[in-house]
Amino acid sequence: MSSSNLIDRASTSLITRRHGLGLIAATVALGAVGAARAATPTLLNVSYDVSREFYKDYNAAFIKHWKQTTGEDLAVNQSHGGSSKQARSVADGLEADVITMNQANDIDILHDRGNLIPADWAKRLPDNAAPTTSTSVILVRKGNPKAIRDWDDLGRAGISVVIPNPKTSGNGRYTYLAAWGAALKKGVSAPAAQALVARIFANVPVFDGGGRAATTTFAQRNIGDALATFESEVPLITREFGDNFEVVYPGISILAENPVSIVDKVVDRKGTRKQAEAYLKYLWSDEGQEIAAKQALRPRSAKVLAKYAKQFPKLQLFTVDEVFGGWKKAQKDHFDDGAIYDKIIAAKR
User: Fold this and answer.
1) What is the domain count for the chain?
2) In this structure, are strands 75-81 and 132-141 parallel, antiparallel, or unpaired?
3) Under a CB-based contact definition with an 8 Å cutoff, are residues 315 and 150 in contact?
4) What is the pLDDT of residues 223-263, one digit of tens each?
């Protein structure tokens, strides 16, 4: 074999080896990038139906805050639906790192049904672990043609009112308890309060599974004379569907608290406890409270609440604890299978 051929073969072999080493190096580099990406912690926040916009803004703010303070990238995914349905999904195995609801009863279930959290979960954060509040209001069509002023009016003959299903929606349960509790606060007897609630629910043409679906029924499908919803929903409805509605604040309504909790068994299994705890604690930060106020949720911070005072009128509100003995008792007396709500609906049929 000629010397030139030997040189050509040696050069080819060297190029091949270099090419192979390059491929290995590239593979290692790509593997390192993939590993880094795979190592990015991801939280799943399972929440109630009408909290989408708030957590969309809050997640972006917290991810930025977390990166600036720890140097760590973080991803946060969301799941939304009727609150009770969401809570049952977590109890049945949905891998939520945190659960953010609009009533304590839908977090208690994680202890009662699966021991996923401790019984005293609400003591781990300020304000019984509820960083924001809202209240139940009545949305009517522009000009209020049916002259709806209070809960009593929703029980009048000829009124059609849209309320999400209290069996699946915290929004629906709050409406039911708001009307009942307001009647009691006015000195009405318990049987008369029940009769009022029965009349109101007899006027409901369709029971949607959650608050956002009920909004669509009222605002987009043009069904009903009134929509019972959270105060925090009103600006969103106006932005999405136009200035075709008016909000009616009942004389007395209910304080809707929005509690949160990590899901201990999930975060300990995934190794995300540190991130999940920080994610919830940041809800009480000035930035978290500001985002809540901008999304029409009442902040706990007195400073932020004062800043947005014009947005949140002072109201006569009662709590579930004060009138109904707490959420566990309210659930048992009113919303469990065979309880008062079921009897009301059975009579409607």
Assistant:
1) 2
2) unpaired
3) no
4) 999 999 999 999 989 999 999 999 999 999 999 999 999 99
